[in-house]
Amino acid sequence: MATKYIPFELYCDGQLSPGVAELSYIAEGILKCRIAPHAEQLQPRSERSEWVVLPHTSIQPTVHSDKQFDSQELRVEIAEQGLNLFNQAGELLLHIERPEFTSQDAQDGFRQGFSSPEPQAFYGLGQYPDGVVNYHGQRQALCQSNKGIAAPLLLSTKGYGILWNQLAFSEFVSQEQQFSFSSEAGECIEFYVIYGPEFDQIIQHYRQLTGAAPLFGRWAYGYWQSKERYVDAAELLATAKTYRQKQIPIDNIVQDWKYWGDLGWSAMQFDTAVFGDAATTIAQLHDMHFKLMVSIWPVVGKGSPVFNALLENGYLFETEHWADGHIYDAYSQGARDIYWQHVKAGLMDLGVDALWMDGTEPEFISTQNPQDGVQFCYQQRDTELGPWKQVLNGYSLMTTAGVYQGQRQQIAQGAEDKRVFTLSRSSFLGQQRYAAACWSGDISATWQVLHQQIAAGLNLSAAGLPYWTTDIGGFFTSGFGAHFPEGVDDDAYKELYVRWFQFGAFCPLFRSHGANTPREIYQFGEPGDWAFDALLKFDHLRYRLLPYIYSLAWQVTQHGGSIMRLLAFEFRQQTQLHNIGDQYLFGPSLMVCPVTQPMFYQQHLQQQLIGAADLSTEDGLAG
Predict the structure, then answer these.
(1) H or E stretch at 153
(2) Which has the closest alpha carbon to 157: 555, 556, 452, 570?
(3) CB distance 451 to 600 below 8 Å
(4) Which of 217, 406, 456, 534 could form a disulfide with 419 if both were Cys (CB 3.0 to 4.6 A apart)?
């Protein structure tokens, strides 16, 4: 038999109780493990476990006995207090401990503990803004937010990975030799242990489980110009013309929100009063060899045709969004179909080349606290595929699947010949198969944030999601910790922007975006000015590297490769490198070490001073 069922003691409400574990090998180096208090809980009650991991046939083990369950690469020994996992050289990789269930009903939450001999470093888990590179000894909440992406694939320098296959709010905790994953809800514990031992091999196995990342058009690896926002067609076209007149290399331009005018938020239509005949505008961009990406949201504005269609079919959640609309239920196939039909008719049929899917956590509330977003999700009615507590982190996976499948159907029917490219603010394991890249959200323009972004991108790549970018220069130049109110007129901001741009040239995707100040390369000076010349130099360098980058992209698609690579991808056993989060490999041949501190210009620190009205003496008098 390819699957083994064993009695497996576990804790329910703190009491040691009988349970059952199901073991199988998906490949020689991939062990699937499912655990529950009762055997019937291991029978699939929904397709939820297949949203991330695609259906696979188990292989036959090489040894199947009462105490042992082996493949050609792994050996499982059934111990009295759990499972011991070895490689075939006899090295202990992992001890799988007795799990803890909140109750006999797995939907009430559970925790799975592991132990593994030190020393080792942990990477992956997604993208988070705090700059942590090595998660050994760390605690990380795994949930979606504006600046956080949950992707619970853990890589260990001991040569294994763990894919925690739960969509619920989860938490990773590491302390000395012990670490654990826990989730607030689920049908049963399910995880995969993936043996490499090299990180490239682990990522290849991850893609085998969850799907390959399609190859984008070559244009997607060039430069993307975006800002918040081009107000009308005239400004959009003038920007494109200026780039061509100045002969600055660029492939892509982005139209951010409000192109829909008064038609309703994310109405999937261009307002003719502002953009005139959008098809003509897009054709003019194409004539200048530009690709156009436009932003869409999961919230649709009241009164818009897409809102009315979704409302009529009961596909909108009840909480009113700050954008005067409601978020649609992307967990519903019917809702995804309606959403795609309006995207197609209002945008893609006009010639739009790519979709920018903003707020896909989904963002019910604009907040800096991820827990606020989680609680707003919990306040909604159940999704079509289950309670929010069970499916919380999967929204982005589902909504990107809808537009990808819609576009692929168009291609299959011969109605469209474009490769799919989507940029989503949120992501999850498996989302790479839907041609969906991601970025790090509305970050602030500070040197500290720039430094922290490097580790964020590296860990997202280590979680198997290969395409990532940031808002070069930071989204906010004022507020939220940023203090560059003069923007491009401030040499201190120009220095930060140039360093960020240099980093961006060595990210999988090369994209500038933000608010408060212009972002176009030519806004940073004239030829001969230091900032302009530096930006132009690295823009040219990106295009000189395109043959190399496109070759790396093929490796991503064909062989499960990674472009942005922790040093541990090449030097896994060199412990002195395990905590380096600001130096990395761009493909196998280039080492990158971005500059993340100012060298020439200082911020005007008086802009950070606290106003007198906000100060007081110890006895309460005005300061």
Answers:
(1) strand 149-156
(2) 570
(3) no
(4) 217
Residues in the chain: 623
Q: Is 358 a catalytic residue?
A: yes
Question: Which tokens is 169 given?
Answer: 């709010």
- The DSSP 8-state label assigned to residue 373 in this structure reads H
The overall longest dimension of the chain from CA atoms, in Å, is: 80
Tokens of 517: 């100040």
Omega within 30 of 0 (cis) for the link into 229: yes
Q: Is 271 annotated in the active site? A: no
* Tally of CB atoms within 10 A around 443: 25
The per-residue pLDDT for range 34-54, each reduced to its tens digit, is: 999 999 888 876 777 789 999
Q: Which of 97, 329, 361, 582 is catalytic?
A: 361
CB count, 10 Å around CB of 385?
19
Tokens 């590491």, residue? 174
**Closest C-alpha among 258, 372, 387 to residue 317:** 387
The answer, yes or no, to whether residue 607 has pLDDT greater than 90, is no
DSSP per-residue codes, 383-395: BTTB-HHHHGGGH
Other Cβ atoms less than 10 A from the Cβ of 433: the count is 17
Mean pLDDT of the chain: 94
Question: What is the average pLDDT across 164-180?
Answer: 97
Give residue 606's pLDDT band: very low, low, confident or very high (50, 70, 90): very low
Residue among 22, 358, 539, 582 flagged as catalytic: 358
| C-beta of residue 261 within 8 angstroms of C-beta of residue 271 | yes
Q: Which residues partner with 320 through β-bridges?
A: none
d(CA 174, CA 462): 18
Percent of the chain with pLDDT over 90: 88
Strands (E), 460-503: 468-469, 478-479, 482-483
Strands (E), 305-454: 325-327, 354-357, 422-424, 436-439
Residue at token pair 């041609």: 435
Residue where the block lists tokens 């967990």: 331
Contacts of 359 (CB under 8 A, 6+ apart): 297, 298, 299, 425
Catalytic-residue membership of 251: no
Closest alpha carbon to 401 in 380, 414, 420, 378: 420
Which residues sit opposite 592 in a β-bridge? 584
What pLDDT is stored for residue 612 in this prediction? Answer: 62
Phi and psi for 16 in degrees, rounded to 5?
-65, 125
Using the structure block, give the residue that is written with the tokens 């942990």: 122
- pLDDT class of 417 with cuts at 50, 70, 90: confident
Catalytic residue among 97, 100, 228, 442: 442
High-pLDDT (> 70) share of the chain, %:
96
Residue 28 CB: number of other CB atoms within 10 A? Answer: 17
Question: Which amino acid would we find at residue 495?
Answer: E
Determine if the pTM surpasses 0.70.
yes
> What's the 3-state SS for 424-448?
ECCCCCCHHHHCEEEECCCCECCHH
